[in-house]
Design brief:
By secondary structure, the chain is of the alpha+beta class. The chain is built from 27 helices and 19 strands. A hairpin with a 6-residue loop joins strand 4 and strand 5. Helix 1 runs antiparallel to helix 8 and helix 19 packs across helix 25. It is elongated and about 175 Å long. The chain starts with a helix and ends with a helix.
Length: 814
């Protein structure tokens, strides 16, 4: 299917789907809304009809109250006489008040007078028995009536609904004891119903609820209303909607069904609106579809077709040097540019392929590997010898010869076996072969690869130089890369040489650099390497040339000296110590010491490893005897390094101690802890000797990673202090002097009283002294400005109580 047809189909389907969705949505929303309006209007008509009926009852009620207050009516109950009936109850009163029923009862519920009136014939009729059934003692019309309060409702009759009103007749002397009752009835005949219809302006009907011959719509309404609904509304015809309700009788039971007919004007208007909307939607949709298709044809489809035609022509001509042309500045023109760029790359790739083919041929001519095509039966189909390797190839290597004719037996058998396996498994086979040519060992790697169903390609690669290089590297593995001496593997390798057992006597000297770990952790690996090289220089300058020297550990060395006695070994050890002392005196050098041990003996009588153990035991005793002096040397070097880096400035230390001493007295710090506080003021930055200089003296702010490295100085200082007796007492203070009162300091996150008092005192004094001194990146704060900064940081960085005491010392308010 073409793109045009797909576009037309998709557009029409989308348009149709949209029209259907909007049509059903419009019907559901608009018609639903108009239907709700119709329902509300019909309910209002029902309400008006019921109110009009109630109004009719109210007018009848007014007449009954007037008669109930009439003295003649009271007298008639007490003393019935025919004269009252003839004069007061003639047909005129029944016609004027539209009354069809009048009954007088005494207080014993005896009927004094009762009649019905036919307005058509203007005649009176006796009270039917069906009416008398509603005048029993348990009738709602006569039971528990209050004086002056009427009871009204409907009585079901065979003809029309009868509205009845009952009112007790009382006197002023005993209002709660009625003389009797007056009951008036008015039939809702067609004439009254028409009058009510005029009032409501909507026709309505009343039919007996229990009538067996109810119309279909009344029967359906009855079934809905019987489920507890007060009203039910349903369309009668296309133009009329009916609302139904129940009119109860005087017994509170369903008596009549009321139907009010209303016009469906709102609903019909909504239906027309939906039709107009759908028609407009279809028209706009068709217009949109046609416009879209025209624009797509002009802007996209025609240009795409033209682009496809140009690409097809380029493909037929197989000329990537040609280019496509699309006008405009949109995605299609960008696509054309991309295609042109692709064609340009294809053209370039094609040229590169041609050049690559030429280069490949040149490469094959110049590559050092030899190539052979061999068939399944071991016949050489073609070959190319590697450049400058023809001397290593059999002189009988010719196309058409058998492999066994061109190569020695073992190599030929291996080639044939690898060929068979490569063809059966379809995987490359690899093996190596060693041969001797011109008194030199020649190593080959032969790689046999399937090249079709019945032949393989065998690549002969000369590994001679690689093997010789590997041998050299194995020898290099026996050397320590930092010092150039033998490493432990090289030392063990030389001790295992059988020639050593021929010597009559050998000596072994062992050496260990004292506190090397402390040097690395405090001053850094750079200084550690300097100490290492100084030690190697001392060994080389002190020992004879024939000595075998090795670095057998991170800070341990050993030397093997042939034909040496113990006294000679002792002299060599003294010379080594002297060389170390001389290196310590050099400018910029770190002062360190070494521990030495030695042993001498005959290798034939005593194994060399036992001699080594003896020398090492003597070295350990030497190390124990001078461990304290070694740490003192390093401590002196650390002090020199701190001075060099300007971390110990006597003026700063004196100011800091003066501030700390004053605050310590105010904080009641015990005198025995003052010495630790003073040492902290002097050596709080000792850990920074292990931080690189480029980080310590960096200008500008530090990165998060650099800041994390800088924070390590407290841990370095802690480790240094633990190793130096003079600083051991403040190791804990060095670790915790950067903790904050609120727990956000480092490295432990301590807070409040968990931080030693000395550290809390020091942090306040150090911060104040730093703020009040000039720095390269800012001028010094005034005393008030520094005090204000301390005040702001109280409770977060600093102990607020100590800040208050410090400010009091300065004469500032907290």
């Amino acid at each position: 299917m073409t793109l045009r047809r797909k576009t037309l189909l998709v557009t029409n389907l989308m348009l149709l789907t949209l029209i259907i969705i909007l049509t059903f949505s419009a019907k559901a929303i608009l018609l639903g809304g108009f239907s709700d309006v119709e329902t509300r209007e019909t309910e209002l008509d029902i309400t008006r009809a019921i109110k009009s009926i109630q109004t009719e009852l109210n007018s009848l009620n007014s007449f009954v109250k007037d008669w109930a207050e009439w003295n003649y009516a009271h007298e008639f109950i007490i003393n019935p006489n025919q004269d009252f009936v003839l004069k007061k109850l003639d047909s005129s009163i029944f016609l004027s008040q539209k009354i069809q029923l009048m009954v007088f009862l005494d207080n014993k519920l005896n009927i004094i007078y009762g009649t019905t009136f036919d307005p058509a014939s203007k005649s009176f009729r006796p009270l039917p028995e069906s009416y008398k059934s509603h005048l029993r003692a348990d009738s709602p019309l006569l039971v528990a009536q209050e004086p002056g309060r009427s009871k009204s409702g409907f009585i079901q009759t065979p003809e029309n609904p009868l509205m009845v009103i009952s009112l007790p007749l009382t006197s002023g002397e005993s209002p709660r004891l009625p003389h009797g009752f007056l009951i008036i009835g008015r039939s809702l005949d067609k004439t009254i119903l028409l009058q009510l219809t005029d009032r409501v302006q909507s026709p309505f009907q009343l039919l007996p609820y229990h009538s067996p011959e109810l119309p279909v719509d009344f029967a359906r309404a009855k079934s809905h209303l019987s489920q507890g609904n007060s009203t039910w509304i349903a369309p009668l015809t296309e133009l009329t909607v009916a609302g139904y309700s129940i009119i109860s009788d005087i017994y509170g039971k369903p008596g009549y069904l009321l139907r009010v007919d209303s016009s469906r004007f709102a609903y019909l208007q909504g239906k027309k609106t939906v039709q107009y909307f759908v028609f407009l939607l279809v028209a706009l949709g068709l217009l949109f579809s046609l416009t879209t298709l025209m624009l797509l044809e002009k802007i996209i489809l025609f240009r795409l077709s033209n682009l496809q035609h140009q690409i097809s022509q380029i493909g037929k001509l197989n000329e990537p040097s040609l280019r496509v042309l699309v006008e405009g500045h949109d995605e299609l023109s960008e696509l054309a540019d991309s295609l042109n760029q692709t064609l340009q790359r294809l053209e370039k790739t094609q040229n590169e392929l041609r050049e690559s083919e030429t280069a490949t041929l040149a490469l094959l001519d110049g590559m050092p590997d030899s190539l052979l095509r061999i068939d399944r039966n071991g016949l050489i189909l073609d070959y190319k010898t590697g450049k400058d390797r023809t001397s290593s190839i059999s002189p009988r290597l010719f196309a058409g010869n058998d492999v066994k004719e061109a190569f020695p037996g073992i190599l030929a058998d291996n080639i044939i076996a690898a060929t068979e396996k490569a063809l059966s498994t379809n995987e490359t086979q690899l093996f190596e072969h060693e041969m001797v040519s011109n008194n030199r060992h020649i190593y080959f790697e032969i790689r046999v690869t399937p090249n079709g169903a019945n032949e393989t390609l065998a690549v002969f690669r000369d590994l001679t130089e690689t093997r010789e290089l590997q041998h050299s590297l194995r020898l290099a593995d026996l050397r320590d890369p930092l010092t150039g001496l033998l490493n432990k593997a090289g030392w063990n390798h030389r001790l295992a040489q059988p020639s050593l057992t021929n010597d009559s006597r050998v000596g072994i000297i062992t050496l260990e650099i004292d506190e090397m770990r402390l040097i690395n952790e405090s001053l850094g690996l750079v200084w550690g390497d300097r100490v290492m090289n100084a030690t190697v220089m001392a060994l080389r300058s002190s020992l004879p040339l024939e000595s075998l020297i090795a670095r057998i550990g991170d800070d341990e060395f050993a030397a093997l000296l042939p034909n040496r006695t113990e006294s000679e070994l002792q002299s060599f050890c003294d010379e080594i110590r002297a060389e170390v002392e001389r290196s310590n005196l050099m400018e910029g050098a770190i002062r360190f010491s070494v521990s030495l041990g030695y042993a001498s003996g005959s290798p034939a009588e005593k194994y060399l490893d036992k001699l080594y153990d003896s020398a090492k035991k003597l070295m350990r005793r030497d190390k124990l005897s001078q461990s304290l002096s070694a740490r003192e040397l390093i401590f002196g070097s650390l002090q020199a390094a701190l001075s060099t880096r300007d971390f110990i400035a006597h003026q700063h230390a004196n100011r800091l101690w003066a501030l700390c001493h004053s605050l310590a007295k105010a904080a009641s710090l015990p005198r025995r802890r003052l010495r630790g506080l003073k040492l902290l003021t002097q050596f709080h930055d000792i850990g920074k000797v292990g931080i690189p200089d480029q980080l310590l003296f960096k200008k500008g702010s530090l990165t998060p990673g650099e800041m994390a490295t800088m924070k390590l100085h407290v841990e370095i200082g802690h480790r240094i202090a633990q190793s130096i007796p003079d600083l051991f007492s403040i190791a804990d203070l060095l670790l915790k002097h950067h903790e904050w009162w609120n727990g956000t300091g480092y490295p432990l996150g301590l807070q409040q009283e968990e931080i030693p008092l000395e550290c809390r005192i020091f942090s306040i004094a150090d911060t104040f002294d730093s703020m009040t001194q000039d720095r390269s990146d800012r001028q010094a704060f005034s005393g008030k400005e520094a005090a204000a900064e301390l005040r702001r940081s109280a409770g977060s960085q600093f102990d607020p109580l100590l800040v208050a005491k410090f400010l009091a010392i300065l004469g500032e308010d907290f």
